[in-house]
Amino acid sequence: MRRYDHLGDVEVFLATVDGGSLTAAAAALGTTPSMVSRALGRLEQRLGAQLLRRTTRRLGLTDAGHLYLAQARAAFALIDDAGRAVQPDGGMLAGTVRLSAPTTWGHYRLPARLQAFAARHPQVQVELDISNRNADLVADGFDLVIRGGEPRDSGLVAQRLEDAAYCLVASPAYLDRHGTPAQVADLAGHACLSFLLPSTGRALPWQLREDGQDVDWQPHGAVRVIDDVLGLVSLARAGLGICQTFDFVAREHLASGELVEVLAHARGRTRPFSLLYAPHRRLSAASRALIEALRAAP
After folding, report:
1. End-to-end alpha-carbon separation of the chain, Å?
2. Which of 10, 31, 36, 216 has the highest Cβ tally under 10 A?
3. Which of 177, 96, 81 is nearest to 141 (CA)?
4. Residue 66 lies in a domain
5. Which of 122, 161, 157, 163 has the alpha carbon at shortest distance from 143?
6. Are 173 and 264 contained in the same domain?
7. What is the total count of domains within the chain?
């Protein structure tokens, strides 16, 4: 009996998850939805476990499906690596890497690194999610995630990408109307744009440093951003108040004169950004190459 005669059904399972439906999987594989359904049924029968919950509107992974998906992706990545290893030139990297990044790093730091990676590995497809949610590596099917702040999940491998410096900025028009704060205490009399943390609903404190001491200052203002932290910068550019952001976000707006840095003497705090992945998952060659590209200076 052939031990791996079911690999075609595993490929169908991966295509179904990637496509989100039987119809999409059938189109990608050049077959019919009924053939896809039968392949999934054979695989589940072989495993003795339900992998997908099927409804008329959508497909959802079961707990067993999430576990099998991660292991199946890793197994197919190994097969791809083995094929390239025996090719005379080592083979060009190919495959898909799923990456999640927060909006700040995703919009301002990732593009240059990703451009260099794409030029070097044109056959690698990167599926990129840019959002402020903390993606779950296993449940959401990501190979790599980028997160801001000190990594809290000790079960993941974390590689530091950078320590990003903070700054306070406002538009010249706002400062003309309301004056320029000279010290941290003056912020109490200004419109301080705040970002509400989705997890707690509380405003994210500003990370400042005064007289050599770290200060967590709580902004209070009439306008608060709930989802996209980059919205703070847009509001500041429009003259609605002062906001705290990263140097790499503010740099182009400071250079153009749209924004002006305030309380420069109170800067000095940073926020780390790290690349995380699961230690038990065998990373594909494409994933490993992307890790190297992300850690390289742009």
Report:
1. 52
2. 36
3. 96
4. no
5. 157
6. yes
7. 3
